[in-house]
């Protein structure tokens, strides 16, 4: 990893003299930058006046305090390919690919959130992330909406007793706006300690100590906010193109993305609009403000901003507003998942394909409650064959609530449990006593047939299962699934008897 990161993650060095447009003083520039004759009469341009070098800031990061206080970080260039970042997250940082990506955006400055709404947001965000195996992605700093996400992750970390319950919160922040960033420079990738100095940060900002992973985006400037937006957008788009779940490249369903919005100003309006243009559903958490607040904010905006609001409202299938007073259950997680399902109903997939996609998403999230209320409704009619793929996924994924729900909604075990289906289920068994017994029987069978070095016969068949059942119950029981050669022999006898009886009748 110490050699991989510097080779694949460059960061930017300014090449202008003195305190230039990039915001850095002369001592932070390379030698070529202090030759005034090279750049006389030129306006500063990021693409011309910076150079990329191997990253010098990456590794493990630790914070003070209790709760989730360790993580991983890397300093990257704005031009880093999102494929490289995704490879870093999944292969080098060993994150399991998500079943859902929750992009949280909104107010970048600290804002007041009523205690009731704050608790509901924290609880709902963690519940949806924990139950679905989602990644949460934010701006990663200890301000505004990012701070609220961090507090939700911290509360969960304090109440969870196992690493299995850890929430993945990825912060994509601007390197040039970080206070105390010099502490993060570790050319060898050693562990570093980061001190949050909120009082002394001035116009800069500190990393949030409750996020788990940080991508620190550098374009060679100092003190300029918003540098990370483009790279974050490209990364989110790439993740949304990855296949969902354990089926790998064979799955037609990709990782869904939802945008959750708290507070925010005109910039957030653009974020919502661009997300919806890309087909990303948005969940807006409404606070106590009424329409007068909206009118007051819109009144001073130019007509282009008002037009954007009109365009957003024209896409109701991508817009979900969470209102405490109207939501009888008050579950933010339900609102997030409902928004995704509502968007999928209006996608290019029509009819049965749309419902199949929704069901596959619900199973990947392990939310039988959502499937029961949003998918298995009176307007959707299911045949047993439509649900068999979902039933197989539920059994392999050990999701008993979905098995019950699918049986209640039309799965016929007589048609579903074919021999090839049973074989697939037995070959997908988790590590258990029965699997070890079957593996041992499979190995003995291969030895008996002289296939010691052959790769053939490496899957469990129903004959192996039948033999193990007879071993457990006693040899007096009839083989449920005799060997193929014996089956052919029995079939031949049956065919012969049919022929003989037919001749007798004639």
Automatic annotation (TrEMBL):
<dbReference type="Pfam" id="PF25508">
    <property type="entry name" value="TRPM2"/>
</dbReference>
<keyword id="KW-0472">Membrane</keyword>
<dbReference type="GO" id="GO:0005886">
    <property type="term" value="C:plasma membrane"/>
</dbReference>
<feature type="domain" description="TRPM SLOG">
    <location>
        <begin position="72"/>
        <end position="299"/>
    </location>
</feature>
<dbReference type="Pfam" id="PF18139">
    <property type="entry name" value="LSDAT_euk"/>
</dbReference>
<keyword id="KW-0406">Ion transport</keyword>
<dbReference type="GO" id="GO:0099604">
    <property type="term" value="F:ligand-gated calcium channel activity"/>
</dbReference>
<feature type="domain" description="TRPM-like">
    <location>
        <begin position="374"/>
        <end position="492"/>
    </location>
</feature>
<protein>
    <submittedName>
        <fullName>Transient receptor potential cation channel, subfamily M, member 2</fullName>
    </submittedName>
</protein>
<dbReference type="InterPro" id="IPR041491">
    <property type="entry name" value="TRPM_SLOG"/>
</dbReference>
<keyword id="KW-0812">Transmembrane</keyword>
<keyword id="KW-0407">Ion channel</keyword>
<keyword id="KW-0813">Transport</keyword>
<dbReference type="InterPro" id="IPR057366">
    <property type="entry name" value="TRPM-like"/>
</dbReference>
<keyword id="KW-1133">Transmembrane helix</keyword>
<dbReference type="InterPro" id="IPR050927">
    <property type="entry name" value="TRPM"/>
</dbReference>
């Amino acid at each position: 990893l110490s050699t991989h990161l510097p080779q694949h993650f460059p960061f930017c060095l300014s090449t202008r003299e003195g305190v230039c447009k990039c915001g850095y003083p002369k001592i932070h520039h390379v030698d070529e930058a202090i030759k005034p004759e090279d750049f006389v009469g030129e306006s500063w341009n990021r693409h011309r006046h910076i150079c990329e070098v191997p990253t010098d800031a990456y590794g493990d990061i630790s914070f003070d305090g209790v709760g989730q206080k360790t993580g991983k970080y890397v300093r990257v260039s704005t031009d880093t390919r999102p494929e490289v970042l995704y490879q870093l997250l999944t292969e080098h940082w060993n994150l399991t690919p998500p079943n859902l990506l929750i992009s949280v955006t909104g107010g970048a400055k600290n804002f007041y959130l009523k205690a009731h709404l704050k608790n509901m947001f924290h609880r709902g965000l963690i519940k949806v992330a924990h139950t679905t195996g989602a990644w949460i992605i934010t701006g990663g700093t200890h301000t505004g909406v990012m701070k609220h996400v961090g507090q939700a992750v911290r509360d969960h970390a304090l109440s969870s007793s196992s690493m299995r319950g850890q929430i993945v919160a990825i912060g994509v922040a601007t390197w040039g706006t970080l206070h105390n960033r010099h502490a993060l420079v570790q050319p060898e990738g050693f562990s570093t300690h980061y001190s949050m100095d909120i009082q002394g940060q001035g116009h800069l900002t500190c990393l949030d100590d409750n996020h788990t992973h940080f991508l620190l985006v550098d374009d060679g400037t100092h003190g300029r906010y918003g540098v990370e937006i483009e790279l974050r957008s490209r990364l989110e788009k790439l993740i949304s193109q990855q296949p969902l779940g354990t089926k790998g490249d064979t799955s037609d369903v990709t990782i869904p993305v939802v945008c959750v919005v708290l507070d925010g100003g005109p910039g957030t309006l653009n974020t919502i609009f661009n997300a919806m243009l890309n087909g990303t559903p948005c969940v807006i958490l409404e606070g106590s403000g009424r329409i007068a607040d909206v009118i007051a904010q819109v009144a001073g905006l130019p007509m282009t901003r008002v037009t954007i609001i009109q365009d957003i409202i024209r896409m109701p299938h991508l817009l979900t507003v969470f209102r405490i007073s109207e939501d009888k259950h008050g579950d933010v997680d339900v609102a997030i998942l409902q928004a995704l399902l509502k968007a999928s109903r209006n996608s290019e997939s029509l009819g049965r394909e749309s419902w199949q996609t929704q069901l596959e998403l619900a199973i990947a999230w392990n939310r039988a409650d959502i499937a029961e209320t949003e998918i298995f409704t009176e307007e959707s009619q299911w045949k047993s064959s439509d649900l068999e793929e979902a039933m197989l996924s539920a059994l392999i994924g050990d999701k008993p609530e979905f098995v019950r729900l699918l049986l209640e909604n039309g799965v016929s075990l007589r048609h579903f449990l074919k021999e090839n289906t049973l074989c697939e289920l037995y070959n997908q068994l988790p590590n258990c006593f029965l699997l070890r017994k079957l593996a041992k029987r499979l190995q003995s069978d291969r030895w008996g047939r002289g296939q010691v070095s052959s790769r053939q016969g490496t899957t469990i068949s129903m004959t192996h299962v039948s033999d193990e059942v007879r071993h457990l119950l006693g040899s007096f029981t009839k083989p449920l699934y005799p060997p193929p050669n014996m089956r052919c022999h029995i079939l031949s006898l049956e065919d012969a008897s049919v022929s003989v009886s037919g001749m007798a009748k004639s």
